[in-house]
Amino acid sequence: MKGKNFEIVSVAQDTGGAKDAGPWITREKLDYTVLIDDQHVVTQLYGMVNVPTAVWINEQGRIVRPGEVAYVDDRYKAFHHVEAAPYLDAIRDWAENGDRSRYAPGEAELKERLKPQGPERGMADAEFALAEYLHKKGFNGDAIAHFKEAQRLAPDNWNYKRQAWALGDAERDYGTGFMNEVKKLNGKPYYEPRRLPEATPKKN
Amino acid sequence: MLKVCLCAAVLCFAAVIAMASEPGRRVVIYDGVATEVTAPADAASDLWVTMADLKRATRFEVKPQGVCRDTLCFPLPKSRKAEFVAKKGAATWFNLSAFARLINQPAARDERHAVWYFGPRSEEAASRLSSLEAPDFTLPDLGGKPHSLADFRGKKVLLLTWASW
Fold this sequence. Notes:
- The complex is a heterodimer of chains A (about 200) and B (about 160).
- With about 200 residues, chain A is α+β, with helices and mostly antiparallel strands.
- Chain A has two domains: about 10-110, no CATH class; about 120-185, Serine Threonine Protein Phosphatase 5, Tetratricopeptide repeat.
- Helices cover about 45% and strands about 10% of the residues of chain A.
- The longest helix of chain A is centred in the middle third of the chain and has 18 residues, at about 120-135.
- With about 160 residues, chain B is an alpha+beta fold.
- Chain B has a domain at about 20-130.
- Chain B has five helices and 13 strands.
- Chains A and B meet through strand 1, helix 1, strand 2, helix 2 and strand 3 of A and helix 1, strand 9, strand 10, helix 5 and strand 13 of B.
- Strand 3 (about 55) of chain A pairs antiparallel with strand 13 (about 155-160) of chain B, so a sheet runs across the interface.
């Protein structure tokens, strides 16, 4: 999609920074901008709840499609059952048509989907940030209580669960793990669901 | 994985010995920046800082019109001034945690390490997305070179998060 005035900015949400995210970046030989966010700044600024999540931003720096699950391939489809193809089609349509794309929701829907989150999310963000600070200072054990508090305050934020679990032994420190928690949901999504408009019949 | 855990545990142990928090010191993290400040001798549950530390750690200053930073000013309720400003010994102290409550700013605290973290005010966080302006940020690439979202103005940007975990 070069030449369509379209860029991918990919941001790793990794407390371990380049140490954890680096090998993935090197292995995949990506030809777009890849940044490292070791304080989950983007997750907090955009109120995200899991990865992969994508937001569409137009040429004027305005959000035209809010955060939602953004699988761009079918690598883990057997697990999450979200097909990548309709989302890739939507991205291509937007790259072509910009704000006029049928995949760019109107302002009313945007405002509805971007409505402010409660004060608990702010408290959760603070607890998570404090936990990250302690973890980076080497106080891994003392960070756990704050990671847990962040998870309690923002139970729908899978980013805060999965990151904390990955920093140690999830079973030992949190008495659970990703597979176990997903199972408990009984098929309910653990991400912000994708809300693409219904497909229109293809023109012949 | 086991190797990583063991290493982390050893590091943690070493760090605890090296960095046991000194009495009378606190760490204040404000706007993402950590600053070490002096704490008063009495063990209060609130975070009192000197006027000098207030400015150093938060850039806020107590002025006649309120607690101010740049063009932003929060007046202190007249009847409750003693909750926020107090003379103790030679210094004048400011209650930063009470101020956070006053302006709806989330705060998290770790008692053992004497660290206080202050996040953005709820109003600030709420207005961030409802304006539909994409919040800007600056982050490094793998080579350490910083990039801002604003650098991409004039282009459509698919902002995509992922993680190693």
